[in-house]
Each structure stands twice: as structure tokens, then as C-alpha cells.
Amino acid sequence: MSHYKPDPNKNVNLIIDGLPVSVPEGTTILEAARKINVTIPTLCDYPELGRRAICRLCVVECDGRSKLVAACANDVWEGVNIVTNNIRILNIRKTIVELLLANHPQDCLVCVRSGKCELQKLAADLGIREQAFCREEENQKPPLKDSETLVRDMGKCVKCGRCVEVCQEIQSVRAINTACRSVNYEICAPYGQALSEGPCVFCGQCAAVCPVGAIYEYDQTAEVRAALNDNGQNVAVQIASQTGAALETEFGLPSGSITTGKLVSALKRLGFDKVFDAGVFADMARAEISGEILTRIKNKSKLPLINCCSQGSINFVKNFFPELAGHLSTCKNPRNVFGDLVKNLDSSRFTGISVSCIAHKFEARQSGTIDVALTTRELGRMIKLSGIDFKTLPESPFDSIMGNSPASETFKAVNFKEADRGIIEAEYSLQGTTIKALAANGLANARKIMDSIKVGECKADIVEIMSCSNGRKADGCDCGGLFISKFRAEQL
């Protein structure tokens, strides 16, 4: 095995499908092809995850050699001539997909990922119109519902390994693993147990990366529609600043198509009585936590304070670092602030709905402060079902919950930098006190900080933990950290 480390400052020249391209050394063939808009199909490749070369759909020819190589796992080299598409490669890719389809349930019309399924798209792109291999009839196991947060329909699993890697490497939780070999190879929880019986923290990242309908969020749209149709209930919803952009991705619309005002109008059309800005509740929560930080600094107790974006992050701390549970913030998070306030608006009973990420579904069931946490995928399905066209919607303002929201503690960012990949350092001034902050994107990065707290090496006053590794803008969740997100906005 070579121990040569690529030099990113050195460029490599090559040809892909007759097109010249120059990329930094260490770039994979797949990345180089994407640079010049050459599409190479793949199922196992995903941003942030390692090179696995499991699905073999991305095989290409190099310099006319008979042996094909996986584009996702091999770096380019100087002068190589790569062919990504010819009759031989096309037939190999078709056979791979046909074999996957032969072992896949034929219920695309009722699948939750219909129209968004990567396997379905591959079959269409490759022109597969008939079943090439006979499917063995098996007793299809019913989907498994875990804590009314995640649903696992493993009969649809294509064994790409994405969920395993995100759980083990990006999140360091290891709640999902592989078992058996050959035709019995499967992806499962340890010992075949339910996710709730193992170390799973219900961050939802496995569902976020699944290319098919094998792992997905527990659907609560029927509950929400029932509440909207109940004349005896008032239904309030809060949406984050990322929700519109996430819905644009869901509907395949260009950026800027769904403004906040149009989204408010859409929610009113669906029947929501009140639509609130999640940023207001974030400000309220930030003010409360600011006071808690100052109190802890004054008393020199339980520092750093640990603020978590969701119950998934809290579960991570409690499950893997129980000795540090006392460092967790005792303040309400923005969803709990929202839930408490909307249910005290008047004498009528309010149902509180939060549009966020999968991790908040588990939180809603545990805390009971908000009634339902919808993902943007669920909200998108409700909007489609109602036939709402964003192009014709007017701009509408958010509802006001209590006049002008109380201002958060006055603070000013002093320093902001990315200390390590996925770990951000910041300093800010709060009432004349300099506060050192750390933020971790992804639980593997959070583990690094937690380990440093255990051995007394962490000098931060507050640590913010985000379950997802990149903010998951595609989920419409504004979990950028109450303080770090504010600093980032100031820097921009």
C-alpha cells in the first residue's frame, strides 16, 4: 500500500470522455468528472462519507484497459484517458441495477420515497423497462417503527452502507452495523434489536443519507391534518429560516422561489391558525442561556455549559458521557419556548407544530411541549396534496406572539474561526465578560470535545452540539447553534 500523500497544490491533467480537465492531485475520478458536468451514476457515494466502492455502479475504463476501476475510490493521475460511458460499461451498470431490482419490493407507487428514490431514478436513466431476473418470493417483513421517530423497511435496503458509515464514522454512535455474509449479508441494529434498545440517539442522520425507502421519518401528516380539520382546535406552527430553501430542494424549484412570505401564505392555506418565526423563540432561548452562562461563570460551577440542538444530542451526552450530564443546560430550547407560549395564547387549546428535522420528532415525543415535529419532506407532501402553487401565492407576514419579543442578552462577536473540520471556535463579549465558545457539527466531533472536557483540557465556557455535520439545510432545520449561528451571521 502506498503511503504517498497527494499535494493539493499540484494539478493533474487528464481527459474524460474526450474532454480535457485539470484538477488538484488527490481528486477522485468521480469528482473530476463532476467538475466538467459528466455524470457517473453511483449509489454508495455521498458527500462527507468515506470512499467505499460498494455499489460498483461508477466503474470506468482507464487508458483502454480491460479492468474497470471504481471512479469514487480511485484518484486521477497525470495523462490518464478515462471513458465513463460505452456499451460495455452501460451493460455492466444495467445488470447491477437489474440485480438490485430483482431483490427489491415492487411497490414504488406507494413507497414514501417514490419520485425521490435514487434506485428508481437509476432504473429510469438506464432504460430498464422489464424485469430481467426472477424475484424469489419471500415473506416481506413489515416496517419497524422505532419510538415513533424512524421507520425501517429493510426489505428495501440496497446495502450501500451509507447509514452504517454516517452512524459509525460521522456520528460515532454505532447503532447500525452489518451482519452475515454473501446472500445473507444485511444492515441491521446489533443483535437484531430495535434501535431504541441499543445506543441509537435518534439523530436521524441514517434516514437523511438513505438513497431508497429503507430508513425514513415516521410520518405524522395524518395527525396534523386531523388537527387542522378539528374546529375545536387552534393549530400553531413555527418555521425556521432554512425551511423555504429546503422546500425548494424538495420541489425541485430554483433558489429564491419560495420566500418566507409565500411559505407563510401556504401554511395559512393548509389551515394553520398561527404561523410563527422560529427565530423569535431562538432569541428568547438565547437570552435565557446567556443568563445561565453568566451565573455559572460567576459561581465557577459546571463549566463548560453544554447546549444541545436537539434531544438526539442530549441523548448522546447522557448515553456516552453520563458523568458530564450535569454540564447540560437546564434552559428551554427554542421548540419548548414555542410550545409553552402558544398553549398560553388564550383559553382555546392550541396544538403546537414545529417544522424541523427528524431528531426533533423524538424530542416532541419525549418532552410533550410541542405536539408534532414535521420534517420538510412531510410538509412538502401536505402542500402537494393540497395543490398549492407557490407562484400564485401572495407574501404574508408572520403572526406576532407577544408584540415585540424580548431582546436577547447584548453580546458582540470578538473572534470566529474553524479550529478543526467541523469544530468552530468563537469568542464574544457578554455584559463585559469574554465568553469562549466551541461548536461541534456532527457527534464524532462532539465526542472530541467531550473527551477534552473529561480530562480537563477544554477551556471553553459554552459548548454547542449540533447532531448533523453540516446544518442539514436540506432538512429545513435551523440547528446552527444558538450562539454560533449568530456569530456566523455577524461575520457574513
Structure in words:
With 492 residues, this protein is of the alpha/beta class. It folds into four domains: 11-85, Ubiquitin-like (UB roll) (Roll), CATH 3.10.20.740; 111-116 and 136-217, Alpha-Beta Plaits, CATH 3.30.70; 221-280 and 334-392, 3-Layer(aba) Sandwich (Rossmann fold); 287-329 and 406-491, Fe-only Hydrogenase (Larger Subunit), Chain L, domain 3. It has 15 helices and 19 strands. The strands form five sheets. A five-stranded mixed β-sheet has the order 2-1-5-3-4, with helices on one face. Strands 13-19-18-17-16 form a five-stranded mixed β-sheet. It is globular and about 70 Å long. Residues 488-492 have low confidence and may be disordered.
Summarize this structure as a short list of keywords or feature phrases.
single chain; 492 residues; alpha/beta; Ubiquitin-like (UB roll); Alpha-Beta Plaits; Rossmann fold; 4 domains; five-stranded mixed beta sheet; globular
Count up the domains: 4
Which term fits the overall shape?
Answer: globular
Range of strand content: 15-25%
The H-level CATH homologous superfamily of the largest domain, spelled out, is Fe-only Hydrogenase (Larger Subunit), Chain L, domain 3
- Give the strand order, joined by hyphens, for the main sheet: 2-1-5-3-4
Uncertain runs are: 488-492
Largest sheet report: 5 strands, mixed
Report the count of strand segments. 19
* Rg over CA atoms: 24 Å
- What distance lies between the first and last C-alpha atoms, to the nearest angstrom? 44 Å
Average residue-wise pLDDT = 85
Count, helices: 15
- The CATH architecture of the largest domain can be given as 3-Layer(aba) Sandwich
Query: Helix content range of the residues, please?
Result: 25-40%
